[in-house]
Specification:
With 216 residues, this protein is mainly α. Helix content is 70%, strand content 4%.
Length: 216
């Protein structure tokens, strides 16, 4: 068992640390939800096709890195799985509301289902890709941390995100769009996904130093 996994949380957690833990976990889960909703629309940016969730999703890696420093690998994995479950519940609720009969006095309200009720492949692709990428990110982060200790914390982010970003983009695009949209569009989306995610990661990776490492 990982030493990090075996470390219990303190019985009494100072309020300031508890707030940081809650804020980091809430930010991570919220970013995953927002990114999934954003992925329902394909944008055209700089001549490339890109799903809207790509604009926000790279920030989940930063939130996950900060969370890792506060609660450790074992609980981070729990938060990742919890976020996936919440996303599934969200889309299940959207589906339920879309299927229930609308109030005839208001009208058919077809736009709700057209906008918020995506195909099952898109939902599964987004959730599976995000969950797999975040778990890989966490595993790589742990390995780099063991090798370097408290030194070069920024390398944890670069190595972990550098490996998990292509995995996320590949899984999402293949599951959600393969056979449904032209291959050239998938290629453009992959390129745009990779570029945007790496740029956001490079801009935000220094934020790893914003919080104290409580899981040393």
């Amino acid at each position: 068992m990982d030493q990090e996994q075996a470390q219990p949380l303190p019985r009494m957690i100072p309020e300031s640390k508890a707030r940081q833990m809650i804020a980091a976990a809430a930010a991570f889960i919220a970013l995953m939800i927002f990114s999934n909703l954003g992925s329902l629309r394909i944008l055209a940016l700089a001549g490339l096709s890109v799903d809207g969730g790509t604009l926000l999703y790279p920030l989940t890696f930063t939130a996950r890195d900060l969370l890792h420093k506060k609660i450790g690998a074992h609980l981070v994995r729990f938060v990742i799985v919890l976020a996936a479950a919440i996303n599934l519940a969200l889309f299940a609720f959207i589906w339920l509301v879309a299927k229930l009969p609308p109030d005839p006095q208001v009208g058919a309200q077809l736009a709700y289902a057209q906008v918020l009720l995506p195909g099952i492949r898109l939902v599964l692709g987004s959730i599976i890709a995000m969950t797999a990428a975040e778990l890989i990110n966490t595993s790589v982060y742990i390995v780099v941390r063991r090798k370097l200790g408290q030194r070069y914390q920024w390398l944890r982010v670069l190595f972990a995100s550098g490996i998990s970003i292509p995995v996320d983009s590949t899984l999402f695009l293949l599951i959600a769009f393969w056979g449904r949209v032209p291959t050239v569009v998938i290629g453009q989306m992959f390129l745009a996904n990779i570029l945007i995610k790496y740029v956001v990661m490079l801009v935000s990776f220094a934020s790893i130093y914003l919080v104290k490492d409580d899981r040393a």
